[in-house]
Amino acid sequence: MDVIKVEGGHPVSGEVRVEGAKNSALKLMAATIMAPGVNTLTNVPNISDVHVMGKVLKRLGATIDVVDEHTLIIDTTNVSKWEAPYDLVVKMRASTAVLGPLLARFGKAIVAMPGGCNLGARKIDMHILGLEALGVQFETAHGNIHASAPNGVIGANVTLEFASVGATENLIMASVHAKGTTTIDNAAREPEIVDLANMLNEMGAKITGAGTPVIEIEGVSELHPVTHAVVGDRIEAGTFIAAAAMTGGPIRVTGFKPEHLGLVLKKYEAMGVKIEREEDGVTASAGGRLKAVDIQTLPFPGFPTDMQAQTMAMLALADGQCVITENIFENRFMFASEIARMGANIRIEGHHAIVHGVKGLSGAQVESPDLRGGAALVLSGLVAEGETTVSAIHHIERGYEHFVDKLCALGAHVWRDTVPDAADED
Ligand SMILES: CC(=O)N[C@H]1[C@@H](OP(=O)(O)OP(=O)(O)OC[C@H]2O[C@@H](n3ccc(=O)[nH]c3=O)[C@H](O)[C@@H]2O)O[C@H](CO)[C@@H](O)[C@@H]1O
Ligand SMILES: C=C(OP(=O)(O)O)C(=O)O
Q: Which reaction does it catalyse (predicted)?
C-alpha cells in the first residue's frame, strides 16, 4: 500500500503557490452542463476529486480535453443523459452538484443517494426541500433520487434551515433558468459560492447577492460557454500556513486571497503566528511555542471546518489548554485519536475537543481518517521526533496536488513509499 513517510525535525521554509480550490472547481465543472458548448476552466487543481467529476461529466455525454495540468476544455454540447450513477457518487459526494445543473438543462435528474461518509451522515434533505419549493418533485427508488420539474423550475423564496454550501449551490444552479425570480435566504457565503455565481453571471445568468446571506436569481432562458479561472484554494493555503506555524517557517504562500482566510489568520495571530499579508498571499512564521486559543467551526466567515484538523495539530503542541468546537460535521474528530498515537493529549466530549498542549510529538504509524486529517498528520510528522508513516493517503490525494513535492521543495524530508499491507501478510 502507498504511504507518506516523514522524517521530523528538518527546517521548512520558502515559497509555495496553491492551486485552484477543489470546492470551487468541482461545482464550476458541474455548472458547464448549463452552458452547452466549449467551456474552458483554468487554474483547475490536478487532484483525484476533479478526475471523478470529469468522469461524471463524460458519462453524461461531455468531452473533456486536458490542455495542460491545470486547464480543462469541457464541451457540453452533446450532454444527453441526466444520471449521476452510484459508482461515481460513492467515490465523491460532491457528484451531487450535478443535480441543479441537470434540472436546469433537462428539467430532470437522477442522482444516486450519496449516503454518509467518514465525517457523518451528510444528508441532502435541505437540497431537496429547497428544490421542492421551486416546483421540483422527488421520488427515491433503488438507491436513486429521481428529480423532475414537470412544469419547469419556478422561482420562489427559499429559506435554508442552515447555511449549507451544497444546498446553496444546487439551488443557485437549478434556478438559473427558472420562470421568475428565486430568493435564497440564509444562503452560504463561502468564497467558492461567489466564484460559482461569478462564472454563471459571465455565462449570462442574473445572480446578485452571492457572498451575502440573501442571494437573488432572476431566471434567464440560456447561458453561453465561457473561459473562467478557478479561485485560489484557501484551505490548501491554510494548510501550508499551519506548516509554517508548526515548523517556524517562514513560508510565503501565494495564489489565494488572504481575506478568504480572515478568521483563520486572526486566530493564528492570537496564537503567536506572524502573518504578513499581501494581495495574493501571506508570509507566515513563528518563533517558539504557540499559545493555546479556543476555536469553533462555523459557516463562512466563521472558522472553516476544513481547517479544523490542521489547527488541532498546531494546538496539540501549544502552551496551555484550549477547546475546539466542531459545529459543522458530527464526526470530524477522528484525527484526534490518530495524533494521540504520536503523543498528543486530546479528550473528546461530544462536539468539543479539549486539547492539552504537549511539548513534543513522536513519529508513529498513523492512518489518514479523511482528507484534512490526513494532511494534518503529515504536518504533525514534520515536527515529530523520528519517522512518521501516514497510510490511507488516497484521502489526501482527493484535495492536495503534489503535496509531497511541495513540502519537499520547502525543505521537508517527506516521501511516498510502498509498504506491505499488514492484511496481505496474514
Ligand atoms: C465539495 C465541497 O464543497 N465540500 C465542502 C462543502 O460540503 P457540503 O456542501 O457537503 O457541506 P454543507 O455546508 O452542505 O454541510 C454542512 C452540514 O449540514 C449538513 N447538511 C447539509 C445539507 C443537507 O441537505 N442536510 C444536512 O444535514 C451536513 O451533513 C453537514 O453536517 O461545505 C463544507 C462546509 O463548509 C466543507 O467542509 C466541504 O469541504
Ligand atoms: C470535507 C471536505 O470535502 P468533501 O465535501 O469533498 O468531502 C474537505 O474538502 O475538507
A: phosphoenolpyruvate + UDP-N-acetyl-alpha-D-glucosamine = UDP-N-acetyl-3-O-(1-carboxyvinyl)-alpha-D-glucosamine + phosphate
The yes or no reply on domain 2-17+290-418 and CATH 3.10.320.10 is: no
C-alpha cell at 235: 484551505
pLDDT, one tens digit per residue, over 127-149 is 999 999 999 999 999 999 999 99
Instruction: State the closest ligand 2 atom to the C-alpha of 372, by its place in the atom list counted from 1.
Output: 10
Which CATH number is 22-229's, of 3.20.20.370, 3.65.10.10, 3.40.710.10, 3.40.50.300? Answer: 3.65.10.10
Cis status of the peptide bond prior to 36, with omega within 30 of 0: no
| Whether this model's pTM surpasses 0.95 | yes
Report CA(297)–ligand 1 centroid distance (Å). Answer: 13
In angstroms, the CA 52 to CA 303 distance is 28
3-state secondary structure of 70: coil
Q: Is 65 annotated as a binding residue?
A: no
* pLDDT per residue as tens digits for the range 351-370: 999 999 999 999 999 999 99
Residues in the chain: 426
Which residue stretches of 272-402 are H helix? Answer: 308-315, 334-340, 371-383, 394-397
Beta-carbon contacts of 246 under 8 Å, excluding residues fewer than 6 positions away, are 286, 313, 314, 317, 379, 380, 382, 383
Same-fold call for 2-17+290-418 versus 22-229: yes
**Nearest Cα residue to atom 6 of ligand 2:** 94
Ligand 2 probe mutation, 23, 164, 331, most atoms within 8 A of CB: 23
Ordered DSSP codes for 293-314: --EEB-STTSB-GGGHHHHHHH
Which pLDDT tens digit goes with each residue over 77-114? 999 999 998 999 888 889 999 999 999 999 999 999 88
This model of the complex carries an ipTM of 0.99
Establish whether the linkage from the previous residue to 250 is cis, with ω within 30° of 0: yes
CB distance 307 to 264 below 8 Å = yes
Instruction: Give the whole-angstrom CA distance, residue 342 versus residue 367.
Output: 12
